[in-house]
Amino acid sequence: MQNSVLQRNRDVPLRDLENRADWIRLETIRLVEIAKSGHYSSVFSCAEMFAALYYRTLRLNPTDPLWADRDRFLLGKGHAAIGQYPILADLGYFPADWLDTYTRLGSALGDHPDMNKVPGCDFSSGSIGHNLSVGVGIALAAKMRGRDYLTWVMLGDGELNEGQVWEAAQSAAHYGLANLIGIVDANGMGLDGDVGDVMNIEPIADKFAAFGWSTQEIDGHDMAAVVAAFDSAQDQVRAEGRPHMIVARTKKGKGVGFMETTPYWHLGFLGPADKAVAVGEIEERMAR
């Protein structure tokens, strides 16, 4: 079994990770075309972080999805699972042809992930705001049992409007969870418009710091910064004995110009002309 384990912090060139991020964008476009509606821009804002986590940072074993010593990853912003599924198939968690059934009747792959159906999915999603609480429980269990796996939780910035998130933040600091790392995909925009207009949640880093977390802010589209932050977070939680939050400043729809300036691609469908423009822009960048 050990030969199939993907160890933490693998040596992967940054350019390869950048191309993986753009491949995730292309696969998202392909899967939305199957469903005829989907979340483009929410995936595009975190594509670099998806790529860095799965292809470099996390300790995983795709041949044994429930391996007790794997690092856990919980997707709070579960509507971005359409960008997670192609990665799981690519790593070998399930056959690639499952992707062709995305959201079809009887498919394991829904708009939000189901941990009971999707190998490699550590917790389900639906109503937003629960996964940091679950991550606290998983991390606390590891601490009590003396296991060395890390628990990572990715949140959306709009998700921070849920009070349960802050109860979880308080609990994580109280229990000194030096094995819990959070990521806020702070893309500044939700379905209803700018997060700051709907319900302002800034300053994010200062708020988590006030709850007892160590924090850092990064450009979530700068792959070098993402990798460095993921590396330093693992060192910092152990050195300081408390949870750590990475606030990644991102842009919704990043990578496709006409998606970057409007909230309307949070959930939508590309017609043929727009699809050609989007795919062309991404493929041109990958070919450089």
- What class would the helix/strand composition place it in? alpha/beta
CATH architecture: 3-Layer(aba) Sandwich
Spans of at least 5 consecutive residues whose pLDDT stays below 50 are none
Task: Evaluate the radius of gyration.
Answer: 18 Å
**Helical content class:** 40-55%
CATH-defined fold name: Rossmann fold
Overall mean pLDDT stands at 95
Number of domains: 1
**Strand line-up of the largest beta sheet:** 1-2-3-7-6
Strand content: 5-15%
Q: Care to count the β-strands?
A: 7
Q: What does the overall shape look like?
A: globular
Order of helices and strands: HHHEHHEHEEEHHEHEH
* The CATH homology group name: Thiamin diphosphate (ThDP)-binding fold, Pyr/PP domains
- Helix count equals 10
The CA-CA distance between the termini, in Å, is 38 Å
Walk me through the topology.
Layout lengths: L13 H22 L4 H5 L2 H11 L14 E4 L5 H11 L39 H15 L5 E6 L6 H12 L5 E7 L2 E2 L2 E2 H5 L4 H7 L3 E6 L3 H18 L3 E6 L22 H16 L1
Parallel strand pairs: 1-2, 2-3, 3-7, 6-7
Antiparallel strand pairs: 4-5
Task: Give a short overview.
This protein has 288 residues and is of the alpha/beta class. The protein has helices at 14-35, 40-44, 47-57, 81-91, 131-145, 163-174, 195-199, 204-210, 223-240, 272-287, and strands spanning 72-75, 151-156, 180-186, 189-190, 193-194, 214-219, 244-249.
Structure, explained:
- It is a single chain.
- Helix 3 (47-57) runs parallel beside helix 4.
- This protein has helices spanning 14-35, 40-44, 47-57, 81-91, 131-145, 163-174, 195-199, 204-210, 223-240, 272-287; strands spanning 72-75, 151-156, 180-186, 189-190, 193-194, 214-219, 244-249.
- The protein has a single domain (14-287), classed as Thiamin diphosphate (ThDP)-binding fold, Pyr/PP domains (Rossmann fold, 3-Layer(aba) Sandwich).
- It is α/β, with parallel strands linked by helices and 288 residues long.
